Amino acid sequence: MEESKNVLSESSKLHMMQTVSWARYSGIISIVNLILSFFQFAVGGIKGNPLFMLSFFGFIISGAISLYMAINLLNYAKFLKMGIEQENSTKIYEALYHLRVYFKIIGILFIVLLSLIALFIIVAIIAAISKL
Amino acid sequence: MMQNEQSLFQLSLDDEAVFQCKEISKWAKFLGIIGFVFLGLLLLVSIATTFYLTHTSGLGTLIGSIYLAVVGIYIYPVLALFRFGKWMKTALTTADQVLFNKSLKSLKNCFLYIGIVTIILICIYGVLALVGLITAASSLN
Question: Global pTM?
Fold first, then answer.
């Protein structure tokens, strides 16, 4: 592709800059949510939750995924702001890479969720047929 | 206007950035489609809940309405994400600057909408927590 076809106009930059603040805000909210989940998990542990070990593994897995997603979103906001302010294409590339990873994680999570739903439906149908 | 805008061009996307944009557009479009599927399923659940629970208990309409409200709230960001993916892909293929801007605006709207919904939800949680504290304090007295 010719370079002239891929230039960022002022309105493109404006829209991108507007996503920066909201992406950063979403990332911060995710981290705050993770901290609150940790407190919830800790209180459950102190109160003697019988399923503590199960919730521990659940918290570790969901926490790690949430943290990685939040970091990617914050990096997208950081690099995009730097890239537009400094007119640096490498930073823009970095920002787009982090946004891609963020979308990819959500996509994979949805694929896993859909697979689990499909599996659940199949199991329910088999159970219903065997009962008949 | 167009000439004025073109004279402002300074920053450009190199081939690698264009590749990233294409990948982002693929995932965004996929997420949009998955979002529509989930919202469709939620709509079915809403209808089923309304009909089933209305006969067994009086909560059918209330729970069905809550599900329907969730569908109504999340239809816009899903649509914005789908549009972003679709328009970004077309803009990069046809080198259409106007469509490229529209796709970025759609992404911005998606982030903005989710951000505002999150703020509203935090406010609702805050009010509920306050009501819970007041109720707990009054029951102690």
Answer: 0.83
